[in-house]
Write a structure and sequence with these properties.
By secondary structure, the chain is α/β, with parallel strands linked by helices. The chain contains 13 helices and 19 strands. α1 crosses α13. The C terminus is likely disordered. InterPro entries: FAD/NAD-bd_sf, Lys/Orn_oxygenase.
Length: about 450
């Protein structure tokens, strides 16, 4: 049977509909609520989340893995350190503030930070529908103009619902980046991306030797986790070596909110140069302490004269062949140093190959006639994260976490969440502050 659609044409349109309820839109939900309590418009908002409940990178919540940024860069503190939704207040409410202070660290475990985020999300359960996957974002065209957008979503049972909204905020996160050689191989349970790692650990633990593809933070963490589970691992990457992440104080200033403004107002060519110049702060790099741990592990192997784990830098996977039975994932490796081809067989492969930020492209395609600027290449985004539109469109589309070309390297990270949420909230509230503003809404319905 096909999906059923729930219709209720009498329903009021929302002021704001958020697609996705990860940290970005969670920070926005806080900013909207606090702005309303401080005398701003009480905007009717709703969030739709594909997952059945809140979890942040659940398959990478490895034992002992820590955050790479300070807990002060939580959902609110950079905007309002007195907010009840801060990480410090989370510790206080759970009776762990003094204990955390005794740890003498700015970097909580990733598992604890996920628990903090889930705790905050619990305060907004009345504004989020979980288990709703958005399948379409469409213009609601009236007399050739678009004042509202229609968002259609499907739940686990296949039932479809639709919402009308004056503004849509897209915060859908990233999708796995899959090397060309592995296209189609993910249909085999023995080949996974790091985004599903923890769910596959039982299978990998029985796999014999496992190949981990990549030399970034996730690759290093997965390698050490598999080592702790007694699994033999080959670390394979095109790069000649693991590179340390540059988190020195002056370099870290590129993640300050003020730098977003600086980056945005540079010419396009200069913005591209900045992104390339500071790639080593975020992409294909590893925390220095973690690199030392990995290096020490390989050194101890030499001391003990064992060959349990192998390091294969400067190698590219050219072809993947799937064979039934044990060690049935065959990789054809090309040495980038001498051009030699090597065939290696594994019981499992983990692709720690990063992510794309392109999910919003599919959603925005139906709106193309009403969008101004080359949004497909990252342009056409205003400073307040709203996509530029034609004069025939007054509905707002805002992007969170996919504006790196225009807004800088911090855009995909947690660093600017509170400030970005404040800026988007101000843009959403602006039409309600003058004479003739639309009636304020407090109710939200699907139709």
């Amino acid at each position: 049977m096909g999906a059923t659609v729930s219709l209720n044409e009498a329903s009021r349109p929302l002021d704001v509909l958020g697609i996705g309820f990860g940290p970005s839109n969670l920070a926005l939900a806080i900013a909207l609520r606090e702005a309303g309590r401080e005398g701003g418009p009480d905007l009717a908002c709703r969030f739709l989340e594909r997952q059945d409940g809140f979890v942040w990178h659940g398959n990478m919540l490895l034992d002992g893995s820590r955050m790479q940024i300070s807990f002060l860069k939580d959902l609110v503190s950079m905007r309002d350190p007195t907010s009840p939704y801060s990480f410090l207040n989370y510790l206080h409410v759970h009776g762990r503030l003094h204990d955390f202070i005794n740890l003498r660290t700015f970097y909580p475990t990733r598992r604890e930070f996920n628990d903090y985020l889930a705790w905050v999300a619990g305060h907004f359960s009345d504004r989020c529908d979980y288990g709703e996957e958005v399948v379409a974002l469409e213009p609601d065209v009236q007399d050739g103009r678009v004042h509202r957008l229609r968002v259609r979503a499907r739940n686990r049972a296949g039932r479809e619902r639709a919402w009308l909204a004056r503004n849509v905020v897209i915060g859908v996160g990233a999708t796995p980046r899959i090397p060309d050689a592995f296209t189609g191989a993910l249909t085999d349970a023995r080949v996974i991306h790091s985004s599903t790692y923890l769910a596959a650990t039982e299978t990998l633990a029985r796999a014999g030797r496992v190949a981990v593809i990549g030399f970034g933070q996730s690759a290093a963490e997965i390698f050490l986790d598999l080592h702790a589970r007694g699994v033999a691992v080959d670390l394979i990457a095109r790069s000649p070596a693991m590179r340390p992440a540059d988190s020195s104080p002056f370099v870290n200033q590129i993640f300050d909110p003020a730098y977003t403004d600086y980056h945005y107002h540079r010419p396009a060519g200069e913005r591209d140069h900045i992104l390339r110049e500071f790639q080593n702060t975020n992409y294909a790099v590893v925390d220095p302490e973690l690199i030392e741990t990995v290096y020490d592990l390989f050194y101890q192997q030499k001391v003990e004269r064992v060959d349990r784990h192998r390091l294969l830098p400067g190698h590219e996977v050219r072809e993947v062949r799937l064979i039934s039975g044990a060690d049935g994932v065959q990789l054809d490796l090309l040495s980038l140093d001498d051009g030699e081809r090597r065939i290696r067989r594994y019981g499992g492969v983990v692709l720690a190959t990063g992510y794309h930020r392109q999910q919003h492209h599919r959603l925005l395609e139906p709106l193309t006639p009403w969008l101004a600027g080359a949004w497909q290449t990252g342009e056409g985004v205003r400073r307040d994260y709203r996509l530029a539109t034609t004069d025939a469109c007054t509905a707002g589309v805002f992007l969170q976490g996919c504006c790196e070309p225009t807004h800088g390297l911090s855009d995909t990270l947690l660093s600017v969440l509170p400030i970005r949420a404040r800026e988007i909230t101000a843009a959403l509230a602006a039409p309600y502050s003058g004479a003739g503003a639309p009636e304020r809404r407090t109710a939200a319905h699907a139709f």
